[in-house]
Amino acid sequence: MTEPLTILQQYWKYPAFRPLQEDIIRSVLAGRDTLALLPTGGGKSVCYQVPALCREGLCIVVSPLIALMKDQVSQLKQRGIPAAAIYAGMSRREVDIVFENACNGAYKLLYLSPERLRTDFALARVNRMQVNLLAVDEAHCVSQWGYDFRPPYLQIPDFRRLLPPETPVLALTATATPEVVQDIQEKLGFRAAHVFQQSFERKNLSYSVLYETKKREKLLGILQSVPGSGLVYLRSRGETKEIAHFLQTQRISADFYHAGLSMEERTQKQEAWISGRTRIMACTNAFGMGIDKPDVRLVAHLSLPDNLEAYFQEAGRAGRDGNKSYAVLLYAPGDADTLRFHLKSAYPDMEHIRRVYQAIGSLSQLAIGAGAGESFPFDLQHFCLTYKLDQGPTWAALKLLEQAGWIALSDATGAMPRVHVSASREALYDYQLRNKQADTITKVLLRAYPGVQREFVEISTASVGRYARLPQEVVEQTLEMAQKEGVLDYQPAQNQPLLTLTHERVAAENLTIDQERFNFRKQRAEVRTEEAIRYAETRKCRSRQLLAYFGEQDSRPCGICDVCTGRNQSDVPEDVFDALEQKVLAILKKEQLPVEEILKAFSARQQEQVEKVLMYLLDEGRLVEAADGKLGVG
User: Fold this and answer.
1) In the CATH hierarchy, which top-level class contains the domain 562-633?
2) Which of 342, 381, 404, 576 is deepest in the core (most CB within 10 A)?
3) Taking the model in full, what pTM does it have?
């Protein structure tokens, strides 16, 4: 076995491991089932990639995120580490080739989306692979207690039983409450508890909740006072474009990003932001996953996310370089009601769910009893227009069908065209003699893309055209013809989201959803929503609130959030401030009063401190002063 540090230095050129990485790797190499909780940007992938290289054999990585899998495979190949991925949207021929190569020892890491674990291809091949580690990324997806439960993850224990009994499991996540930590170990069948957890505390990150009705103006003021790059998270695609345009009119370099853009647009926008050509990215939660930009100085949310897991992960993209950074939530009085409305809309009735499922059947044109494992392009807006469905409730129904295990949804894979030259040398030579254009293009493929005769490789038809001195459309037409002739396998570019049927299609009236699971998931979502609202509305150290949510109950005040800095300025001890604030708000919820009347409710000894609390609450917008001088709750 090669030493982990030697592997790290050889392939990654890092002089040493980050905190906990080596402990996690040593635990895995000792054959122990291990759970690693590392914050966003904490280097989770190294924890399974290094042990995969320390030993003979293959590491299988289960991941739900196609874009991340593709990115990881690309990075590994650049480091000289053979890797591949299998996910929704690949042809049966592609999947067959990758699995066969894995059996023959062609890769050190094989990434699988969870719905691929129970396919015939996987079940028939896994016992021929020399698997040295099973890594489960985004492991919180296995838990119904968590915010991102995905039913295919429940198939992992069955898949594990097909591996040699000594094969360890490494589960990794960036966000997990204590209940989820326990549930992950139970669901994945851990033989013993080996949990490594970094504190979720971010000492350089100042969390603030600012009570604002004029959010755009406040955002502008923040951006004018906080230099450096930033992210502005918004709920809808339309808002991202509006905010970016608003900032541009104020001479701030800004752009927008959401999952509805083409892959080319997303790549261009992302690269411009990472390089610093664009300062601010106004985006939905589709942006940021897997992007490692260490010098983000500000992450602002103009809407409260559905849960603190999502907020913590998105806010945590600020300040990864360790320098002072800011996570700001702009919160208006109606935001809590909006969040509760979204929650209610996320659980439509069974009639609507069946109607959406019926429309999926019509779109796929698959017969009843067929379709398990089939994927097809899926455009939500076009789907809703075609079948006269409201977009919001339809998206909610799709997510419930996914949670119930009937379908799997994925964002646009952004797949480049892929080619595998499958013909024998003799057949290929004969085809080239008969087709001059195909001869030119084939020679370019063989020279520019090593391995194209062994497996599918991503190509750029534009680049091939430049080398072959042929128009891009001629290249694509020639590849399509060669596919029909059986000379090569060609998969055109795929930029649309995909919907995969994970079970045979059933008649809509026979569609069932586990009501007990449905009610449990709804109840858990309600709890998470109320926790998010409580975070925004409770005047306690923001960092302590977040840490307590993730199980760190004994943390100290951070000293740099809006609550801590305000109380430091007021010079009133935290526990005294809390008590005085609660009493002031209780008095003013009944009626508006002038300052003198408020002070009469407190002892003479307390009145100086009460004045400081009132000034602070007025500054924060928690209290408002009427024209007659009376104070009321904002």
Assistant:
1) mainly alpha
2) 404
3) 0.79
Assigned CATH topology for domain 4-197: Rossmann fold (3.40.50)
CATH fold group of domain 341-414+496-524 = Arc Repressor Mutant, subunit A (1.10.10)
Residue with tokens 């951006």: 223
* Pairing mode of beta strands 631-633, 418-421: unpaired
The predicted-structure confidence for 105-132, as pLDDT tens digits, reads as follows: 999 999 998 888 888 888 889 989 999 9
Domain boundaries, the chain: 4-197, 205-332, 341-414+496-524, 418-491, 562-633
**HSE, side-chain direction, 13 A CA sphere, residue 419:** 27
- On the CB side of 152, how many CA atoms lie within 13 Å of its CA? 26
**What is the share, in percent, of the chain residues with pLDDT greater than 90?**
65
Residue in 114, 115, 140, 116 with CA at minimum distance from that of residue 44: 140
Q: Low-confidence residues of the chain, pLDDT below 70?
A: 290, 411-415, 495, 567-570, 620
Tokens matching residue 530: 């109320």
95 in helix, strand or coil?
A: helix
d(CA 274, CA 359): 40
Strands 109-112 and 58-62: parallel
With H, G, I as helix, E, B as strand and everything else as coil, classify residue 210: strand
205-332 and 341-414+496-524: identical CATH topology: no
Does CATH number 3.40.50.300 belong to domain 205-332? yes
Exposed e or buried b for every residue in 474-495, given b needs 16+ CB within 10 A?
Answer: ebbebbeebbeeebbbbbebbb
Calpha distance 165→216 (Å, rounded): 57
How long a stretch of residues is the chain? 634
Cα(325)–Cα(293) distance, integer angstroms: 13
Token pair belonging to 362: 């019509």
